[in-house]
């Protein structure tokens, strides 16, 4: 017989957990287009959304999917799409439009190897694209990166709240390891961001006794776009101030800090334990929000340290943000590209070399 | 005396930015008249295109969303799936609907989205300075077909979007008219009304193609433009009901 604890937990992939979390977060509309390694999301949504009487569309392309989300979002409904790296590139135009029109939406990217068609192996090489905007124009999108299946669900729920609170698209940036691996999850996905989300009085579809609503990102008259973009900038500043998220592991007495996110942080955590057994006091700093980058937390954690090691499944992208946050520190980089993953032992070896 | 004619409630009391002789002014008004007549002002949602009609929301007095170039029917699909009781339409030009957004057009039609699409065909890209559109007729000079569109030199033939869509099961109603004469304007109004009524009675995808003039890009007077529609354009794009 199962005990109550077991009954509440289920074995799920990260992809399924993000899909289930979206349903739990009240996602009313999902549109997507198949691409590996996130196909479990679209399949899960096809079933779950229809069972809940909510809208699901398998779109004809990534372009159509993100623009369907634009339409759904403009009605004030919670909307989501998901894809993987090459598909996210296609969605970038739509993400820029969403940001320009201040529409909330959740976009999940389960990263794979690139550039181009690349491969379907794990990668973290969309960091620049994600944290620097990705589409055209002056805009930023908050980006959250989970390191476990449970957290993949939690951050998806948080992403919906952040999107609604700031009226901005929010990205959940998972890598293929997180998307594909299975872990027991609680299905609670409890972390609620803010209880009082603003009323969506800008949404289309109810003109009764009100003036017409327009959803747009187009400001042709001289000076108007500048004003609009400055308004967006104020919002970014607010997000930068309030939404920096990170976690740490054994940093109090650490002499060397490893910085990693997503599945790579799992390996870095294990490396910390191995290093400590060899009397090397290391610690882990894990950014959860990649934009805004948790620079305040990083500076505080690394205050007394001289050296840092950044590990990524790329040729070095987040390492730039670490160097920007800590210009006076020695920052070493270990990375693999093209679907390669620096292993725990790779990290141990690399850290030892820097000491 | 009873008032017989006035500005529709759904049309704002402002001047438009359109060139003289352009068909958008007439079409905006026709849409607004039909919205008023059917009492839809509080439940209609328009999707404006990229192109000359990009600021249609400055003229219509009801809810409107913008859409990226070509994606109006995807945006409309998202809106309609969330608000099935509202009446949703797109207003798109030939470049938008038949070129960059062809995939969205075909698939929204094929899914039988319960939407209304108003397709303004002026055989060129107006806003960007008059380049060749999929609907540019053979021999027509544009900025990118300076010697006239020549199918033999790789420029292709005019695309008959309405005829292309008619065999799709999801499509309920396709009709082609023009704004080149009072008679055609009246017909166009009836077609638009029918297309909206189809949506209200959940019949699926309706498209009204309207041949419209672009005197500035065609480098013709308003009157010459009207004549060009009636003498040249209709040869390539015959008017009438294509599917019902």
Detailed description of the structure:
The complex is a heterodimer of chains A (355) and B (244). With 355 residues, chain A is α/β, with parallel strands linked by helices. In chain A, 42% of the residues lie in helices and 19% in strands. Chain A contains 13 helices and 15 strands. A seven-stranded mixed sheet of chain A has the order 3-2-4-5-7-6-13, sandwiched between helices. Chain A has a five-stranded mixed sheet with strand order 10-12-11-14-15, sandwiched between helices. In chain A, 54% of the residues are buried. Chain B is an alpha/beta fold. Chain B is 34% helix and 16% strand. Chain B contains eight helices and seven strands. Chain B has helices at residues 24-37, 72-82, 94-100, 102-110, 161-165, 182-200, 215-218, 222-236; strands spanning 44-47, 63-65, 87-93, 116-121, 171-178, 205-211, 240-243. Chain B has a seven-stranded mixed sheet with strand order 2-1-3-4-6-5-7, with helices on both faces. In chain B, helix 1 (24-37) crosses helix 6 (182-200). Chain B is globular and about 50 Å long. The N and C termini of chain B lie far apart (40 Å). In chain B, 55% of the residues are buried. Chains A and B meet through helix 4, helix 5 and strand 9 of A and strand 2, helix 2 and helix 4 of B. Strand 9 (214-215) of chain A pairs parallel with strand 2 (63-65) of chain B.
Q: Secondary-structure map with pairings?
A:
The complex is a heterodimer of chains A (355) and B (244).
Chain A: H1 4-8, E1 10-13, H2 14-24, E2 29-32, H3 39-51, E3 55-58, H4 62-74, E4 79-83, H5 85-100, E5 105-111, H6 127-131, E6 143-144, H7 149-166, E7 169-175, H8 176-180, E8 182-185, E9 214-215, H9 224-242, E10 246-249, E11 256-259, H10 262-277, E12 282-287, E13 289-291, H11 295-302, E14 307-312, H12 318-325, E15 330-335, H13 344-354
Parallel strand pairs in A: 2-3, 2-4, 4-5, 5-7, 6-7, 11-12, 11-14, 14-15
Antiparallel strand pairs in A: 1-8, 6-13, 10-12
Chain B: H1 24-37, E1 44-47, E2 63-65, H2 72-82, E3 87-93, H3 94-100, H4 102-110, E4 116-121, H5 161-165, E5 171-178, H6 182-200, E6 205-211, H7 215-218, H8 222-236, E7 240-243
Helix pairs in contact in B: 1-6, 3-4
């Amino acid at each position: 017989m199962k005990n109550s604890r077991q009954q509440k937990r289920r074995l799920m992939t990260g992809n399924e957990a993000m899909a289930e979390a979206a349903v739990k977060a009240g996602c009313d509309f999902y549109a997507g287009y198949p691409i590996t390694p996130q196909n479990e999301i679209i399949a899960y949504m096809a079933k779950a959304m229809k069972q809940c009487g909510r809208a699901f569309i398998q779109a004809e392309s990534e372009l159509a999917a993100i623009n369907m989300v634009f339409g759904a979002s403009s009605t004030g409904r919670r909307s989501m799409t998901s894809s993987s790296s090459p598909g996210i590139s296609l969605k970038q135009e739509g993400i820029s439009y969403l940001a320009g029109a201040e529409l909330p939406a959740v976009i999940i990217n389960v990263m794979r190897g690139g550039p181009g068609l690349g491969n379907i192996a794990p990668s973290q090489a969309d960091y620049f694209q994600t944290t620097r905007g990705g589409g055209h124009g002056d805009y930023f999108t908050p980006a959250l990166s989970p390191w476990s299946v449970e957290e993949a669900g939690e951050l998806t729920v948080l992403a919906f709240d952040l999107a609604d609170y700031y009226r901005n698209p929010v990205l959940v940036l998972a890598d293929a390891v997180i998307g594909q691996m299975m872990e027991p999850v609680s299905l609670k996905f409890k972390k609620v961001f803010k209880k009082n989300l603003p009323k969506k009085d800008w949404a289309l579809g109810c003109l009764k006794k009100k003036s017409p609503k327009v959803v747009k990102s187009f400001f042709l008259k001289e000076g108007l776009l500048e004003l609009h973009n400055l308004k967006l900038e104020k919002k970014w500043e607010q997000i930068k101030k309030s939404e920096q998220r990170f976690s740490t592991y054994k940093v109090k007495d650490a002499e060397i800090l490893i910085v990693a996110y997503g599945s790579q942080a799992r390996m870095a955590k294990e490396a910390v334990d191995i290093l400590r057994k060899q009397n090397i006091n290391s610690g882990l700093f894990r950014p959860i929000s990649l934009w805004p980058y948790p620079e305040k937390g990083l500076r505080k954690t690394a205050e007394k340290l001289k050296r840092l090691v950044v590990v990524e499944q790329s040729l070095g992208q987040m390492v730039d943000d670490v160097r920007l946050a800590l210009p006076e520190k020695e920052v070493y980089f270990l990375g693999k590209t093209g679907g390669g993953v620096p292993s725990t032992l790779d990290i141990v070896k690399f850290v030892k070399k820097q000491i | 005396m009873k008032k017989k004619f006035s500005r529709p409630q759904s049309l704002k009391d402002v001047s438009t930015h359109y060139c003289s002789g352009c068909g958008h002014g007439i079409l905006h008004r026709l849409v607004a008249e039909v919205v008023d007549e059917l009492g839809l002002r509080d439940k209609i949602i328009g999707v404006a295109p990229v192109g000359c009609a990009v600021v249609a929301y400055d003229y219509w007095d009801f809810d409107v969303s913008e859409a990226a170039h070509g994606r109006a029917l995807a945006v409309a699909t998202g809106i309609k799936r969330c608000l099935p009781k509202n009446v949703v339409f797109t207003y798109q030009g030939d470049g938008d609907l038949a070129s960059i957004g062809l995939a969205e057009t075909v698939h929204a039609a094929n899914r039988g989205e319960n939407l209304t699409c108003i397709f303004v065909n002026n055989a060129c890209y107006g806003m960007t300075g008059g380049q060749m559109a999929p609907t540019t007729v053979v021999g027509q000079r544009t900025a990118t077909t300076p010697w006239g569109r020549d199918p033999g030199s790789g420029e292709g033939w005019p695309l008959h979007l309405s005829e292309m869509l008619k065999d799709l099961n999801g499509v309920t109603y396709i009709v082609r008219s023009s704004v080149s004469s009072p008679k055609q304007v009246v017909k166009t109004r009836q077609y638009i009304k029918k297309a909206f009524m189809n949506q209200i009675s959940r019949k699926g995808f309706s498209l009204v193609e309207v041949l419209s003039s672009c005197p500035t890009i065609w480098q013709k007077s308003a009157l010459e433009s009207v004549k060009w529609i009636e003498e040249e354009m209709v040869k390539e794009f015959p008017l009438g009901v294509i599917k019902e």
